[in-house]
Amino acid sequence: MQGSDTIFDKILAREIPAAIVYEDDDVLAFKDIQPQAKVHVLVIPKRRAASLNDLKDQPPSNISAFLIGVSNAAEHLGLVQGGYRVVLNTGRDAGQTVFYVHAHILGGEPLGTFGS
What we know:
The protein has 116 residues and is an alpha+beta fold. The protein has helices spanning 7-12, 52-55, 60-76; strands at 20-23, 27-31, 39-45, 84-87, 103-107.
Protein backbone atom coordinates (compact mmCIF):
# COMPACT_ATOMS: atom_id res chain seq x y z
CA MET A 1 0.00 0.00 0.00
CA GLN A 2 2.92 2.33 0.62
CA GLY A 3 3.62 2.68 -3.11
CA SER A 4 0.05 3.17 -4.32
CA ASP A 5 -1.51 6.57 -4.78
CA THR A 6 -4.25 7.26 -2.27
CA ILE A 7 -6.93 9.91 -2.42
CA PHE A 8 -4.69 12.01 -0.15
CA ASP A 9 -1.78 11.76 -2.59
CA LYS A 10 -4.15 13.02 -5.28
CA ILE A 11 -5.43 15.87 -3.08
CA LEU A 12 -1.85 16.88 -2.29
CA ALA A 13 -1.00 16.83 -6.01
CA ARG A 14 -4.15 18.91 -6.68
CA GLU A 15 -5.45 16.16 -8.99
CA ILE A 16 -8.78 16.11 -7.15
CA PRO A 17 -10.42 19.00 -5.31
CA ALA A 18 -10.62 19.43 -1.56
CA ALA A 19 -11.81 22.23 0.70
CA ILE A 20 -8.36 23.29 1.89
CA VAL A 21 -8.39 25.27 5.12
CA TYR A 22 -4.69 25.46 5.98
CA GLU A 23 -1.36 24.77 4.31
CA ASP A 24 2.28 25.33 5.15
CA ASP A 25 5.57 23.82 3.96
CA ASP A 26 4.95 20.59 5.88
CA VAL A 27 1.20 19.87 5.98
CA LEU A 28 -2.06 20.26 4.11
CA ALA A 29 -5.37 20.50 6.01
CA PHE A 30 -8.78 20.11 4.43
CA LYS A 31 -12.39 19.52 5.47
CA ASP A 32 -13.51 15.94 5.97
CA ILE A 33 -16.25 15.01 3.49
CA GLN A 34 -18.13 13.12 6.24
CA PRO A 35 -17.78 15.44 9.25
CA GLN A 36 -18.26 14.00 12.72
CA ALA A 37 -18.23 17.41 14.46
CA LYS A 38 -18.99 21.04 13.65
CA VAL A 39 -15.34 21.35 12.61
CA HIS A 40 -13.75 18.19 11.21
CA VAL A 41 -10.52 18.66 9.32
CA LEU A 42 -7.92 16.17 8.13
CA VAL A 43 -4.25 17.10 8.29
CA ILE A 44 -1.74 15.21 6.15
CA PRO A 45 2.03 15.58 6.09
CA LYS A 46 3.58 16.44 2.76
CA ARG A 47 6.17 13.71 3.36
CA ARG A 48 4.14 10.53 3.02
CA ALA A 49 3.87 7.67 5.49
CA ALA A 50 1.16 5.00 5.37
CA SER A 51 0.37 5.13 9.09
CA LEU A 52 1.68 6.25 12.45
CA ASN A 53 3.73 3.03 12.52
CA ASP A 54 5.51 4.12 9.33
CA LEU A 55 5.84 7.74 10.45
CA LYS A 56 8.07 6.62 13.32
CA ASP A 57 10.68 5.56 10.75
CA GLN A 58 11.04 9.12 9.45
CA PRO A 59 13.47 11.68 10.86
CA PRO A 60 12.25 13.32 14.08
CA SER A 61 12.12 16.66 12.25
CA ASN A 62 9.42 15.29 9.91
CA ILE A 63 7.38 13.98 12.82
CA SER A 64 7.60 17.23 14.76
CA ALA A 65 6.75 19.23 11.62
CA PHE A 66 3.59 17.13 11.22
CA LEU A 67 2.51 17.62 14.85
CA ILE A 68 3.30 21.34 14.74
CA GLY A 69 1.28 21.53 11.52
CA VAL A 70 -1.69 19.91 13.26
CA SER A 71 -1.42 22.46 16.06
CA ASN A 72 -1.06 25.35 13.60
CA ALA A 73 -4.10 24.19 11.64
CA ALA A 74 -6.19 24.04 14.84
CA GLU A 75 -5.03 27.53 15.77
CA HIS A 76 -5.80 28.79 12.26
CA LEU A 77 -9.32 27.33 12.61
CA GLY A 78 -9.85 29.21 15.89
CA LEU A 79 -10.11 26.07 18.00
CA VAL A 80 -7.40 26.69 20.59
CA GLN A 81 -9.46 28.58 23.16
CA GLY A 82 -12.40 26.16 23.21
CA GLY A 83 -10.30 23.06 22.69
CA TYR A 84 -10.23 20.33 20.10
CA ARG A 85 -9.64 16.60 19.72
CA VAL A 86 -6.95 15.02 17.55
CA VAL A 87 -7.44 11.43 16.37
CA LEU A 88 -4.92 9.26 14.52
CA ASN A 89 -6.40 5.95 13.37
CA THR A 90 -3.72 3.34 12.73
CA GLY A 91 -4.62 0.15 10.89
CA ARG A 92 -7.82 -1.46 9.72
CA ASP A 93 -9.04 -2.47 13.18
CA ALA A 94 -8.82 1.17 14.28
CA GLY A 95 -10.88 2.32 11.31
CA GLN A 96 -8.09 3.62 9.08
CA THR A 97 -9.49 3.53 5.55
CA VAL A 98 -6.92 5.69 3.73
CA PHE A 99 -3.41 4.37 4.22
CA TYR A 100 -1.68 7.74 4.35
CA VAL A 101 -1.06 8.97 7.89
CA HIS A 102 -3.50 11.74 8.78
CA ALA A 103 -4.80 13.47 11.86
CA HIS A 104 -8.47 14.26 12.37
CA ILE A 105 -9.04 17.58 14.13
CA LEU A 106 -12.52 17.73 15.67
CA GLY A 107 -13.95 20.73 17.47
CA GLY A 108 -16.07 23.83 17.23
CA GLU A 109 -18.55 22.42 19.77
CA PRO A 110 -18.46 20.48 23.04
CA LEU A 111 -17.40 16.90 22.33
CA GLY A 112 -18.38 13.91 24.42
CA THR A 113 -15.81 12.59 26.86
CA PHE A 114 -13.37 10.12 25.46
CA GLY A 115 -11.09 8.04 27.62
CA SER A 116 -10.32 10.77 30.19
